[in-house]
Amino acid sequence: MPHERDPLLQFGRSESSQHRNHTAMAAAEATPTATLPDGTDDISGNVDQDEARRILRRIDWFIMPLLFLVYTFNFMDKTILSSASVFGLKEDTHLEGSNYSWVSSVFYFGYFLWAYPTTLLVARLPIAKYLAADTFVWGAVVALTAACSNYGGLITVRFFLGVAEATVSPALMFITSTWYTRDEIPTRTGIWFAGNSVGGIISSLLAYGIGHITDNIHPWRWMFIVLGVATFLLGFGLLFLLPDTISKAKFLTPEERQWAGDRVVIAGTGRTENTTWKWQQMVECLRDPKTWLIVSISLLCQIPNGGTQNFANLVITSFGFTSLQSTLINIPYSVISVAAISGTGWLAGHFRSTNCILIGLIVIPPVVGSALISSRSSIPHGVSLFGYFLLSTGPAALPLLLSLVQSNYRGVTKKMTMTALLFIAYCAGNIVGPQLFISDEEPTYDTAFRAITICYALVVCLVAVLRLYLQLANKRRQREEGIQGSAGASGAVGGGKVVDVVDGRNITEAVNEVLLRPEDYEDVTDWKTFGFRYRL
Q1: How far apart are CA 314 and CA 427, in angstroms?
Q2: Which residue blocks in 95-218 are alpha helix, DSSP H?
Q3: Cα 514 to Cα 17: distance, rounded to the nearest angstrom
Q4: What is the spatial distance between Cα 81 and Cα 105, in angstroms, rounded to a whole number?
Q5: What is the spatial distance between Cα 11 and Cα 227, in angstroms, rounded to a whole number?
Q6: What residues have CB less than 8 Å from 96, skipping those under 6 apart?
Q7: Could you tell me the pTM of the whole model?
Q8: Nearest Cα to 151, choosing from 81, 112, 103?
Q9: CB 71 within 8 A of CB 531
Q10: What average pLDDT does the segment 205-209 reach?
Q11: Local structure of 94: helix, strand or coil
């Protein structure tokens, strides 16, 4: 069995008064209807298992392709700089010394600046419209990069590209936790995050094809023009196809929308509609020890990422390959990343106690790979290239961290504050990373690859500490509350019931059996939710 099976319904003790109304209430007798927070009646009826699967499939087919496409373009537009660097960009814009490193890093200064403000807007504005508007701006900025002719122009558009793309990941995390349960979040996050590596494959093929152009515009400019226009057009797809909330999803009937919303209240991390910013939740996030462990892990994972993304093609050409060959060699690298991201996402979704273990395991190959590249002077180029491919599993650590945040944080403000902090650390790591690729050390970049080895080794240590902390927190909560609780449920609902959701069948049973009350739709944090247990 993927998950440990507890009784479907556990009942909280009435003396646990510290956990708001629903944590103190005993199970109540069912009544014909329930009143939702907006004053309307609960119109959902019983849904059988076949219908439940059909509704979830429909949600997947409408939501996931859009999120996947957004993240695919997000990665291509951000990293096409690496391909452009070997097709004339450095010469045409007169980059010298550390100029290219700063062009790589300045993207993350823009990202850093906008990371927190955009998380506030993600939770307050209609998410689909906000993401679509952001995509229009982002596509325009990418296309305008082709007009740059000097270092100043290039560094300016890269800064604003960082501002535009800062919205993407927090928005996709918010959408995922809006639609999916705690057991579904890691797999779905792995699916859309795999767009990163698929984007790497597509951008490599695109760069290889465009690299053969010999006109006066030059190949690197065509790369930005093509991707910028395509990204702008994607904005229209988001505007017309992506719903702002579950209650506005036109591809579902009113009854199906009610069922989709209730399943997230019971087995997700709560309702995300009609919430307000709560300062006490922000303070709670800052006081939470797991917050700073996750932030530290994010920082250490992204220092290697920031350098290897932007210097990949330059490193490969140093192995003796041509510029065109370097774009093709990145394809198997991206394929390995897709497999690592989607595979670990599936495992984390099906086995609740494996998330931290997977992060530790997934960064071990990059430790070996960076050590091999550091020793390149004494080993054949083929072994160094093998070491480069071992770096490809490293990007899988970030979606596993995102899944932990989405699954282990309740309360919209607390979750979005954690999201902002995670991406601030993400920016800091990506700013530092390119600076470790010192131009005087080209093409071996010894300092950079030694730093990559150290960073990933520290990740293994910190993720072990994080897992231990979450285990101890679960044991403490179990002892204080007197029940097992569940890492697959949102906590106590329907008058004190804690539903242990093991699979899709149990979700359907729970939605049919549990009569939700108005307080179940309230925006409450994980610290104050009775029966909530952390995924490990």
Answers
A1: 22
A2: 99-124, 127-144, 151-165, 168-179, 185-193, 195-210
A3: 22
A4: 11
A5: 54
A6: none
A7: 0.83
A8: 103
A9: no
A10: 85
A11: coil
